Amino acid sequence: MTPTTVMELGRGAMELGLMVAAPMFIAALVTGLLISVLQAATQINEQTLSFVPKLIVMFLTLLIAGPWMITMLTDYIRRLFTSIPNMIG
After folding, report:
1. Pick from 24, 26, 36: which is nearest to 60 by CA?
2. Where in the cell is it found (predicted)?
3. How do residues 13-29 score in pLDDT, each as one tens digit?
4. Distance in angstroms (rounded) separating the CA atoms of residues 30 and 5
5. Which residue in 58, 55, 68, 61 sits closest to 16, CA to CA?
6. Which of helix, strand or coil describes residue 83?
7. Up-side HSE of residue 57: CA atoms within 13 Å toward CB?
8. 7 CB neighbour count, 10 Å cutoff
9. What are the extents of the domains in the chain?
10. pLDDT in tens, 36-69
11. CA 58 from centroid of its chain's CA atoms
């Protein structure tokens, strides 16, 4: 296994991790932004007002994007396992 192969595997794993985590990050970012605007407009500074909607949106995002996330991860692992003989030999 060459250093180039290791770097390619690491880069692929990092790209996959970012791609799988992106829907959750985007959902949290948009929800946090909307709640912050609402809190600034109404001058309500309750911490649970920010936390509970984010938790609900993250759960809904996981329900919607979860199958896609699992498919991406299993496809990557399947490709990785099938390429092991080529990497070793």
Report:
1. 24
2. Cell membrane; Bacterial flagellum basal body
3. 999 999 999 999 999 99
4. 37
5. 68
6. coil
7. 19
8. 10
9. 23-88
10. 999 889 888 887 788 889 999 999 999 999 999 9
11. 11
